[in-house]
């Protein structure tokens, strides 16, 4: 034998494994989102907690009836999160403050470099030119890695469905509105103009303009401008974002940056290991031929066909 | 079985029975017993009654999970998408199954033929561990029938999970091939065995590559969730190393654990070579495991220092972390080192048990207990989820035992080789031939020569 067979086997093994992942290197550039991406600016100082956005979303996305009606203020007693039955929820914070409570709308933030997308092994997520992060339920296997990866805890899952459980989250009304240049249902219905729809780049300017014009009204930060590489949904707030349930510990790097160390290691292992271990193998064999081997039986065996 | 052997039952360890007739498949399956004898010994074993009880309750619930959905069976929630099935079944079973590639490497690459008595057990342990990790995964996936999707329908090649899926799938087939030699011996198909032996070295090297990558990849999965896993269990630069390195002692100690259990509960099944060499082999494995643990503790400390996370040690989470490190890794390291030096096998084995516990605890901690540590509530698995996990684990034990009872894993399959594979032309004396052929039956040593 066998050197040739061995090398052949290594080569076949190596290429088989290498075939699966070619994209790794290209994932390392810095991507700041599509230039024409749309977005929504949420001015929490304007929100009065009427929950009409929740109702509009429910109607637009044909979601099931909620347990309590959209007029019921008792839902503010507990902090809620988006689920498979509600793509957006409004929470109330700072209720004991004299300046009055602050309401915050929660939904998918449509990251520029979504963690759900980069963690999905069947490519079920797409970031569209318009900025929406949409989901293809036809290929989803149901591993729920996107829910692990989402830094904002957004995707909800149909745990109740045995036959077709899928991930559900805000898709920026992509199918019914955004595709045709229309704003999402929640933005259109907002009576307070707390939500502003537009190009993400313009919204960032607008947000900073508002802060500059009335600095006493806002903290000097636009949440979502830089967090995890930037999101299509941007927030203005009158108090520190950490007081409104935002995660202020998130890095400005997209989530995928954390994974790049490992992804970069993969081709190294693929290329170095075969040489390293076949080298070690050859070294060990040499020793045996010099008479230091510990298994004479196997040497004898070798004469067999 | 012990009683029956005392009453003169011949153990099945060759293709021929005591009269020199070829054994039938049924005869091999029934371990040479008559059907009534077989049932009798099965009934007499109290462990079977425990298993029967687990299956009686567990199988209907397992089936129910597929009819009523995940919400019915698990605590799976929007905040804690991964529960026991993955936290224990996948993330803990996989590192305990790294033994296959390690012993394969030691025997085939490093030429440590003295470890061969345990090599097949290690390979089988690897295969079954992976296989049942996939079973747990199937129970957990929302749409398990779409498991092949990342292979054939839709590719997400930039995702770590894609790597895991491909590597586990390819590695599973590598392991099937590696274990198949024992199966081919058992069913009497020497051509198949020779075929596999030809590619053993290639299989072994691909085994190392695939294992390194996907053991690491399982850790890298959590680097998608910075801030969600408690900082003491999380390190974006070292996470894959933590998982990979701790899988090394995990796999070795799992082999010590399994071989200990097998030597105690099915002593009749091991041949004299297995029983005589077991202590020596265990010491070798324990030495390897000690190196692994020492490395693991070191990189764990480096990771804490790297991100300057010392302050977290002074908290409730810090105590839990210290418990895991001390009881799961430092103490077993001390015990095994002491046991190896003084040749006190009981202490070595105790250390190995504790390491297995430590690795499992580490995986469960990372995937479940410390996950979403900032959220106020912790998820406690409901009883149905616990029972399903237990049922799958019981199936793992049953399959493991079924194979150990029958295939030449702990013993050497006698006689077949000399009758069917040694050509007459080789001028080896009859007696020498018998001995010579009996060794490589359980080894691939002849294939490791690069002559």
UniProtKB/TrEMBL annotation, chain A:
Name of the protein: 4Fe-4S dicluster domain-containing protein
Q: Which residues form the 4Fe-4S ferredoxin-type domain?
A: 38-67, 131-160
Per UniProt, the keywords (alphabetical) are: 4Fe-4S, Iron, Iron-sulfur, Metal-binding, Repeat
Coiled-coil residues are none
Give the species.
Answer: Geomonas oryzisoli
Localization in the cell: Cell envelope
UniProtKB/TrEMBL annotation, chain B:
Q: Under which name does UniProt file this protein?
A: Polysulfide reductase
- The species this protein belongs to is Geomonas oryzisoli
Provide this UniProt record's keywords sorted from A to Z: Cell membrane, Membrane, Transmembrane, Transmembrane helix
* Compartments, record wording: Cell membrane
Q: Which domain of life is it from?
A: Bacteria
Please report the record's description of how this protein sits within the membrane. Multi-pass membrane protein
List the transmembrane segments: 47-68, 80-101, 121-139, 159-187, 199-225, 240-263, 284-305, 317-340, 347-366, 386-405
């Amino acid at each position: 034998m066998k050197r040739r067979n061995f090398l052949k086997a290594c080569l076949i093994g190596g290429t088989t494994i290498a075939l699966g992942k070619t994209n790794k290197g290209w994932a390392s550039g810095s991507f700041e989102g599509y230039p024409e991406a749309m977005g929504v600016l949420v001015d929490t100082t304007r929100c009065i907690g009427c929950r009409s956005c929740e109702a509009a979303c429910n109607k637009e996305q044909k979601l099931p009836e909620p347990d309590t009606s959209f007029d019921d203020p008792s839902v503010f007693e507990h902090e809620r999160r988006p689920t498979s039955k509600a793509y957006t929820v409004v929470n109330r914070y700072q209720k004991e403050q004299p300046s009055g409570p602050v309401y915050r709308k929660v939904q998918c933030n449509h990251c520029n470099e979504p963690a759900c997308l980069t963690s999905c092994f069947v490519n079920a997520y797409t970031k569209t030119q318009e900025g929406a992060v949409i989901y293809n339920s036809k290929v989803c296997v149901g591993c729920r890695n996107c829910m692990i990866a989402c830094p904002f805890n957004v995707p909800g899952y149909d745990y109740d469905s045995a036959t077709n459980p899928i991930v559900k989250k805000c898709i920026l009304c992509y199918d019914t509105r955004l595709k045709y240049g229309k704003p999402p249902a929640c933005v259109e219905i907002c009576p307070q103009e707390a939500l502003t729809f537009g190009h993400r780049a313009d919204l960032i300017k607008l947000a900073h303009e508002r802060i500059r014009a009335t600095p006493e009204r806002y903290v000097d930060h636009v949440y979502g401008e830089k967090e995890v590489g930037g999101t299509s949904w941007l927030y203005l707030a009158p108090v520190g974002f950490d007081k409104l349930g935002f995660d202020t510990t998130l890095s400005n790097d997209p989530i995928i940056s954390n994974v790049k160390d490992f992804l970069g290691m993969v081709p190294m292992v693929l290329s170095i290991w075969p040489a390293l271990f076949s080298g070690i193998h050859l070294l060990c064999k040499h020793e045996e031929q010099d008479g230091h081997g510990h298994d004479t039986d196997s040497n004898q065996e070798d004469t067999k066909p | 079985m012990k009683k029956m052997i005392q009453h003169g039952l011949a153990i099945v360890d060759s293709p021929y029975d005591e009269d020199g007739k070829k054994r039938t498949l049924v005869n091999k399956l029934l371990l040479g017993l008559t059907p009534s004898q077989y049932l009798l010994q099965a009934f007499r074993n109290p462990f079977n009654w425990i298993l029967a009880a687990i299956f009686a309750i567990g199988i209907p619930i397992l089936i129910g999970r597929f009819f009523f959905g995940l919400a019915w069976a698990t605590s799976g929630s929007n905040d804690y998408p991964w529960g026991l099935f993955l936290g224990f079944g996948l993330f803990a079973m996989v590192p305990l199954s790294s033994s296959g590639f390690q012993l394969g490497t030691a025997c085939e690459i490093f030429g440590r033929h003295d470890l061969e008595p345990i090599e097949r057990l290690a390979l089988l342990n690897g295969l079954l561990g992976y296989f049942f990790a996939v079973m747990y995964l199937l129970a957990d996936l929302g749409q398990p029938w779409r498991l092949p999707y990342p292979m054939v329908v839709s590719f997400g090649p930039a995702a770590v999970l894609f790597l895991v899926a491909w590597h586990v799938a390819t590695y599973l087939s590598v392991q099937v091939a590696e274990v198949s030699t024992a199966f081919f011996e058992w069913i009497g198909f020497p051509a198949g065995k020779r075929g596999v032996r030809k590619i053993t070295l290639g299989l072994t090297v691909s085994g190392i590559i695939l294992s390194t990558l996907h053991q690491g990849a399982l850790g890298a999965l959590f680097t998608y969730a910075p801030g969600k896993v408690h900082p003491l269990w999380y390190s974006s630069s070292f996470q894959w190393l933590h998982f990979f390195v701790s899988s090394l002692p995990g796999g070795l100690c799992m082999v010590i654990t399994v071989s200990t259990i097998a030597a105690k509960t099915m002593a009749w099944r091991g041949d004299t070579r297995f029983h005589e060499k077991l202590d020596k082999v265990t010491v070798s494995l324990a030495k390897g495991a000690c190196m692994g643990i020492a490395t693991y503790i070191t990189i764990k400390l480096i990771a804490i220092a790297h991100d300057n996370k010392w302050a977290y040690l002074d908290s409730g989470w810090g105590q839990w972390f210290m418990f895991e490190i001390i009881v799961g890794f430092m103490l077993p390291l001390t015990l095994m080192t002491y046991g190896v030096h003084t040749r006190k096998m009981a202490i070595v084995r105790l250390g190995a048990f504790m390491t297995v516990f430590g690795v499992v605890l580490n995986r469960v901690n990372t995937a479940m207990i410390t996950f979403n540590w900032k959220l106020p509530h912790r998820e406690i698995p409901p009883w149905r989820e616990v029972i399903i996990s237990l049922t799958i684990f019981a199936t793992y034990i049953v399959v493991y035992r079924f194979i150990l009872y029958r295939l030449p894993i702990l013993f050497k399959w006698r006689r077949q080789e000399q009758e069917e594979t040694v050509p007459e032309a080789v001028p080896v004396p009859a007696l020498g031939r018998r001995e010579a052929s009996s060794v490589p039956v359980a080894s691939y040593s002849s294939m490791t020569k690069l002559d």
